[in-house]
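so i finally got all the pieces together for this one. its two components total, 206 residues if u count the protein bits. some of the lines might not be protein, just check the labels. i wanna see the whole assembly predicted at once instead of chain by chain like last time, that was a mess tbh
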Amino acid sequence: MWINLGKYKGKWVALSENEEEIVASNDKAKPAYEDAILKGVKTPILFKVPEILAPYVGSV
Amino acid sequence: MEFRYKALEISPSKSVNRKLVVWRPIIPVYLFNNKKIIGYEAIMDSGADFNIFHSEIADILGINYKKGHKRRLFGLSSQKIKGYEHEVEIKIQGFGKYKTKIIFSNQIPVNSFGVLGNIGFFNHYNVNFKYNEKLISINLASKYLN
């Protein structure tokens, strides 16, 4: 799943509780979270996919 | 408790259409406020002084993030970003909840992640990065053991 995040660049993805499935995505975090809840995920895990998937050497 | 590194596919160069798989120590953390619980993937960065999370996470938790203490942060680029510090209950899988400092910001760069840093995370756990096995071993720091 993680390796195929390219099409979600810049978006929030809501993951299933085992982190293996993307259950919702949105430009904003809250709709992605709420959509995942509606789809039956009790505690969605949110991840902001970086807009630029490039080498990373520090946090900000 | 052991966690796996996450594999991400990146583009190392703008000019060459080549992909590279990199492994990063990204783990889920759980945040609590009133009756809200939210999971959030953050990268462990022992070079960071604080936990820095996206402000949208605070919004979902019902926290008005701009009401926190204002903090300014600098990274490798020397670009200043602004954040607001809050005390939030946090948990990682296999351990109990604890209250810790989190800086929420709406200025996290577009190529970056939410960060677990020294004050609020690494001061609570002993973390062993086993990059060659793509595993991260986390134990409670001895000062928190009964």
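Chain A is about 15% helix and 20% strand.
Residues 2-48 of chain A form one domain.
anyway lmk what u think
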